[in-house]
Design goal:
single chain, alpha/beta, 23 strands, 6-stranded parallel β-sheet, globular
């Protein structure tokens, strides 16, 4: 077996699942274990990607996977390098940016686990002071290093969310939950202060199709129904009648039951309200006519055609609102190598990256949303990552490890046997040492590039501060973390 020196671009769940799988398939007791080295890069100074900067703060149970990631990071064969942006434009001004060409000569294998980081915008709703992508709010309340500005909640009474997925419900829940209830969770103090000043009274959640096609899960809907200080406006009973001959899935049946029962607080009993506006699609927006007035969103009424697609009925209404938040999914960064504009993510087959001509790029792989698009939950991300890890080992030494069959898991486009594909090479077959590129090592010496020990020190301090405040943790931004790490590194040396 030739040595595998793998660079993983991205340090989110998929990255750690791939790394942990590789390390477990070649445990320290395996004679070949020393031949595996993994370097994990992320443009953020902290690891864990969406688990830290995407999961809603009041869902701490979703973050339990971090324990597995911590376990993987204890293996000396895995090294994390934070604050290193590779190959694409970065919204993080302080990160060390390197072209992909600076990475390639130093590794025999390459894995993209970069996710889908670019929000999909609505053509009729251009970004403005009164129309923002959901990612801006999510990054605000998770204190993402891109540092989006806080929404002016003290000047808003009505917020409209376009899209009826879980992210929309996360945002609605954050806006409608009393800050005193959120204070126990991983909500940064500045975010709580903004929420305490909020004057939001109503949140409209708009979707182009009906309740049986809504993308949110029953768990998220149940949480909305249980909000302590808000109530759901009544729905038209006709919306809750399945079409004749329709066989509901288990999730659809549960959703129907929840909607029929309504919120725990009955309409008219709460100061705050929310609504599910089904069969509505935005066609335009005009800004406030004068200071103190609202933006106006034009909504086309829709119905389902025989293929269950939303089509306009010809009727429209106008909705006055203070802020529109578009939550329509995400795509990969278009400037990324091997990005396919049709797929909106990297071009892959069985986890292997393909070039524009359909040729396999030897020893270059992709996992998670980078390979599949922005869909699925952590469990599906884990299974995909495991299959990609197995593919890496099967390609390196076929028949020598017990693995998952990659055609049993969704890891990109339909699989064509590798001996039927032409291959191209961008990586060396061997490298001289186990070191990262010189620029990364220099950044680490200068205190800009972080490692997992740095992250562990920051995490422990965040938890300590949180405990003193009666909450899960109190987050640190990069400037504050860098000060802490400068003294921590001095003690370590």
């Amino acid at each position: 077996m030739a040595p595998i020196k793998l660079a993983i671009i991205g340090a989110g769940p998929s990255s750690f699942y791939v790394a942990s799988r590789l390390l477990s398939l070649l445990p320290p007791t395996n004679p070949q274990s020393s031949l595996l080295k993994i370097h994990m890069y992320d443009r953020l100074w902290a690891p864990h990607g969406l688990v830290r900067y995407g999961v809603a703060p009041d869902h701490p149970e979703v973050k339990n996977c971090i324990h597995k990631f911590d376990g993987a990071a204890e293996d000396p064969r895995l090294r994390f390098f934070g604050n290193v942006n590779v190959g694409t434009p970065s919204p993080i001004p302080h990160a060390l940016s390197l072209p992909l060409s600076a990475i390639l000569p130093h590794y025999t294998h390459l894995l993209f686990s970069t996710g889908c980081t670019v929000p999909i915008l609505h053509s009729a709703l251009p970004p403005s002071d009164y129309c923002v992508p959901a990612l801006s709010l999510v990054h605000w309340y998770t204190q993402h290093p891109s540092r989006p500005p806080p929404p002016p909640l003290e000047r808003l009474s009505h917020v409209t969310l376009i899209g009826q997925g879980n992210v929309s419900l996360d945002i609605a829940r954050m806006l409608l939950t009393p800050p005193t209830n959120l204070a126990q969770y991983d909500v940064p103090a500045p975010v709580l202060t903004t929420l305490e000043r909020s004057t939001v009274q109503h949140v409209s959640i708009v979707g182009r199709r009906g309740p049986f096609q809504a993308a949110f899960t029953t768990k998220e809907l149940r949480e909305m129904m249980a909000l302590p200080d808000a109530s759901l406006l009544p729905l038209d009973p006709a919306l809750l009648t399945p079409p004749p001959g329709t066989a509901l899935t288990r999730q659809q049946a549960r959703t129907l039951q929840l909607l029929q029962k309504g919120s725990a607080n009955k309409p008219g009993t709460t100061r705050k309200t929310w609504s599910l506006d089904f069969f509505r699609a935005p066609t335009g927006i005009t800004g406030p006519a004068t200071p103190g007035t609202r933006a106006q969103v034009t909504l086309a009424h829709t119905m389902l055609d025989p293929a269950a697609r939303a089509v306009p009925t010809g009727e429209t209404t106008t909705l006055g609102t203070d802020l529109v938040v578009t939550s329509l999914g995400h795509r990969a960064e278009p400037s990324a190598a091997w990005y396919d504009p049709t797929l909106r993510h990297l071009r892959t087959s069985g986890g292997r990256v393909l070039d524009a001509a359909g040729r396999t790029v030897r020893n270059v792989y992709a996992s998670g949303w980078a390979a599949m698009g922005a869909r699925g939950v952590l469990a599906s991300t884990m299974m995909d990552a495991y299959a990609v890890a197995d593919t890496i080992l099967q390609d390196s030494f076929p028949g020598e490890t017990k693995t998952i069959a990659s055609d049993d898991v969704d890891v990109g486009a339909p699989i064509i046997k590798e001996d039927e594909r032409e291959r191209v090479a961008v990586l060396p077959a061997e490298v001289a040492d186990d070191a990262p590129p010189p620029a990364v090592e220099q950044g680490r010496q200068e205190g800009l590039v972080t490692d997992y020990e740095d992250w562990s020190a920051v995490s422990a301090e965040e938890v300590r501060r949180g405990e003193a405040m009666g909450k899960e943790r109190e987050r640190m931004g990069w400037e504050e973390a860098r000060v802490l790490l400068s003294s921590s590194r001095a003690r370590r040396s």
